[in-house]
Specification:
alpha+beta; two-stranded antiparallel ribbon; 34% helix
């Protein structure tokens, strides 16, 4: 996405809801350990395509890097914002493949 261009889902979030999310989340990425205040985006916890809404309980503020990591499968974001949200870091995809191979070999008695 070009700099300064909002994605389609972000464009449809009402301005008053966007302001509320930025204020509620203190203008910081909500990924534990990140706290970035740059390149912030509003993330739908339940995607619009899966029936998610623009309700504030389904929206969380993430920096571009953490938001991208989620969509790349490296972060899992679930629950309801702001107090019952869970963010889990996944291992590197190569590590998951190695873990699966190790588990398969162990199960096969190798």
């Amino acid at each position: 996405r070009p700099p300064g261009k909002l994605d389609r889902a972000t464009q449809t979030i009402p301005k008053r809801v966007r302001r509320h999310i930025f204020q509620r989340d203190a203008g910081c990425c909500q990924t534990p350990g990140c706290r970035s205040t740059l390149g912030l985006e509003i993330h739908h916890i339940i995607a619009r395509e899966a029936g998610g809404t623009h309700d504030p309980s389904n929206l969380t503020l993430r920096c571009d890097s953490c938001h991208r990591a989620h969509h790349d499968g490296l972060l899992t974001i679930s629950g309801t914002a702001p107090h019952a949200i869970t963010t889990t870091r996944s291992s590197d995809p190569a590590d998951r493949s190695a873990d699966a191979t190790t588990a398969d070999a162990t199960a096969a008695g190798v």
